[in-house]
């Protein structure tokens, strides 16, 4: 069976019998057509499906890489090729899948989004702390940025969990691991201002949650995301505007100013230093950008 015919039959089956989405079929069609073009160029003629081996599949990734495709795209295109061969192994047309042992490229590690210092400076004065909701929102954002908490950790806090005298907060992290994290004076001031107005959210007398929703119960994750997204909207053009951006900013700004990597890792509650090292990449990239902009020999 010629490769073109094999591709056509596979795509037809994918679309009709497997009820694949239009997006998937289109993506697979493009990927498999590229594979056919590559194989035809390599063989000098269009090969038969059963003639293809692992030595035809592996160089296909290099061929795509030379066209400057992202690793995510390479993974998808290899998945299309593997899926087609698997289909013909199951149908009995092939005895083995020549793409089975070809490893998918690792995905590019995305650098975390973070706010510039000027954006942080613009964020906190924008809250209307005369209202209980505004005071709560500022206190929440101060805590996320000032102590690098995950949003789930912040929302678990109860009244009194922040030790004002010691300027620390006891956090229950992933896998129920507890850690003590420093709290900024700005956070303490914001939390105290909010606490003075907290009763105006009409909590039940038994409600111990520090951060309350507008109906008096513990603030939900969905509501917290909306609060942060609305707060970040006017002050940054960054695409991501989630609570995690404030946590990323906490780590990035600490490392930018020479903080010890292990100390930052402990404050973030990471189980491994390798998880925290992504923030050092952010700082290094910022140093490179500053060098390129400022050093006369770096400009070309």
Q: Please report which band the strand proportion falls in: under 5%, 5-15%, 15-25%, 25-35%, 35-45% or over 45%.
A: under 5%
Number of domains: 2
Computed structural class: mainly alpha
By DSSP, the count of extended strands is: 3
Structure description:
The protein is mainly α and 300 residues long. The protein folds into two domains: 88 residues, DNA polymerase, domain 1 (Orthogonal Bundle), CATH 1.10.150; 178 residues, Orthogonal Bundle (hpI Integrase, Chain A). Helices cover 55% and strands 4% of the residues. The chain contains twelve helices and three strands, in the order αααααααβββααααα. A three-stranded antiparallel sheet has the order 1-2-3. Helix 6 runs antiparallel to helix 8 and helix 11 packs across helix 12. The radius of gyration is 27 Å and the shape is elongated.
Q: Helices, strands, pairings?
A:
Blueprint: H1 3-16, H2 22-43, H3 54-65, H4 71-90, H5 117-123, H6 132-147, H7 151-156, E1 162-163, E2 168-172, E3 178-182, H8 185-197, H9 221-232, H10 243-256, H11 261-268, H12 273-294
Antiparallel strand pairs: 1-2, 2-3
């Amino acid at each position: 069976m010629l490769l073109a015919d094999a591709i056509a039959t596979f795509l037809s089956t994918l679309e009709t019998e497997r009820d694949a989405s239009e997006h998937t079929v289109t993506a697979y069609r493009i990927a498999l057509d590229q594979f056919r073009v590559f194989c035809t160029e390599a063989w000098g003629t269009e090969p038969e499906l059963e003639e293809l081996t692992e030595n035809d599949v592996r160089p296909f990734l290099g061929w795509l890489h030379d066209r400057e495709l992202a690793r995510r795209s390479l993974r998808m295109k290899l998945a299309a090729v593997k899926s087609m061969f698997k289909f013909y192994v199951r149908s009995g047309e092939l005895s083995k899948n020549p793409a089975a042992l070809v490893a998918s490229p690792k995905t590019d590690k995305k650098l975390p989004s973070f706010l510039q210092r000027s954006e942080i400076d613009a964020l906190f004065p924008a809250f209307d702390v005369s209202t209980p909701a505004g005071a709560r929102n500022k206190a929440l954002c101060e805590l996320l940025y000032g102590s690098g908490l995950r949003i789930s950790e912040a929302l678990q806090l109860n009244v009194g969990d922040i030790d004002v005298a010691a300027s620390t907060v006891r956090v229950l992290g992933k896998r129920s691991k507890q850690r003590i994290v420093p709290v900024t004076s700005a956070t303490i001031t914001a939390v105290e201002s909010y606490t003075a107005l907290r009763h105006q959210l009409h909590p039940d007398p038994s409600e111990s949650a520090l951060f309350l929703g507008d109906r008096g119960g513990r603030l939900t994750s969905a509501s917290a995301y909306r609060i942060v997204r609305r707060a970040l909207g006017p002050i940054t053009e960054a695409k991501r505007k989630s609570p995690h951006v404030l946590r990323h900013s906490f780590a990035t700004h600490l490392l930018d100013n020479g903080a010890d990597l292990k100390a930052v890792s402990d404050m973030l509650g990471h189980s491994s230093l390798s998880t925290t090292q992504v923030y050092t990449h952010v700082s290094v990239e910022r140093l490179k950008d500053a060098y390129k902009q400022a050093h006369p020999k770096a400009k070309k």
